[in-house]
Amino acid sequence: MTISATSVRFDEHTMWVELSDGRTLGIPLAWFPRLLHAAPDEREQVELSRGGLHWEALDEDISVAGLLAGRGDITRSAEHAA
């Protein structure tokens, strides 16, 4: 069974993703800087697919598998402690 997103909504600090298996994920917007800095109307332009979420204008793609694994924006390099 493939778990997919059925809807997405936002509040000030969180992206809420409803999944096809009945779970709801609350993801901090800080994990995805493009979404964090986007205008509310830009965030609402999400396209849902079997595998994830896509925002054409923001050049943002987020997989459901990545969200379930607890991964944020993997396009940015991790900061290393000195």
UniProtKB/TrEMBL annotation:
Protein name: DUF2442 domain-containing protein
The organism of origin for this protein: Bradyrhizobium forestalis
